[in-house]
């Protein structure tokens, strides 16, 4: 065991039990929320092979990852996608999928500062292929 590992173990052993428990709970729970404090799933709940639902599958992805820059107030690039009609139009035109697909360097144009989960991209692609229904 390295000196650094021993130092960390020593610090943890000296922490009051309540503080250590609170820290561990905070650490675990902090991974369950995005930057704006909204709960985010670690994985997708729907397989792209099933019927994709706009309200259950697509809108939560858009709400969590896109609306902070593309709502009526903050329409970055002139793009507003805050309701079904706007999102479906963006999906049908190819703009939505083209902006989130992963390029050969492993990055996507959107969302800024990150990328969607592969399963979220697959859900959006499946929703578009299924006709971008308002379901």
Topology:
Elements: H1 3-14, H2 17-30, H3 54-65, H4 84-93, H5 95-100, H6 118-129
Describe this structure in words.
- This protein is 49% helix and 0% strand.
- It is mainly alpha-helical and 135 residues long.
- The protein has 2 domains: 31 residues; 76 residues, no CATH class.
- α3 packs across α6.
- The protein is elongated and about 60 Å long.
- About 16% of the residues have low confidence.
Query: Percentage of helical residues?
Result: 40-55%
Q: Helical stretch count?
A: 6
Q: Would you report the number of β strands?
A: 0
Radius of gyration: 20 Å
Share in β-strands: under 5%
Largest sheet: none
- Structural class category: mainly alpha
What's the number of structural domains? 2
H/E element order: HHHHHH
What is the typical, i.e. mean, pLDDT? 79
What coarse outline follows from CA principal-axis ratios? Answer: elongated
Unreliable spans: 22-42
| N-to-C CA distance | 56 Å
Q: What's a quick, concise take on this entry?
A:
This protein has 135 residues and is an all-alpha fold. It is 49% helix and 0% strand. It has two domains: 1-31; 54-129, no CATH class.
Features:
6 helices, mainly alpha, 135 residues
């Amino acid at each position: 065991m390295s000196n650094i590992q021993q130092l960390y173990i020593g610090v943890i052993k000296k922490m009051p039990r309540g503080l250590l428990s609170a820290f561990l709970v905070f650490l675990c729970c902090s991974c369950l929320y995005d930057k704006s404090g909204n709960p985010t799933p670690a994985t997708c709940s729907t397989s792209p092979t099933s019927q994709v639902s706009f309200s259950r599958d697509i809108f939560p992805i858009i709400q969590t990852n896109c609306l902070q820059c593309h709502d009526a107030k903050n329409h970055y690039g002139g793009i507003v996608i805050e309701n079904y009609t706007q999102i479906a139009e963006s999906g049908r035109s190819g703009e939505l999928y083209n902006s989130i697909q992963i390029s050969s360097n492993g990055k996507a144009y959107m969302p800024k500062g990150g990328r969607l989960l592969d399963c979220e991209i697959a859900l959006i692609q499946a929703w578009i292929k299924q006709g971008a229904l308002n379901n």
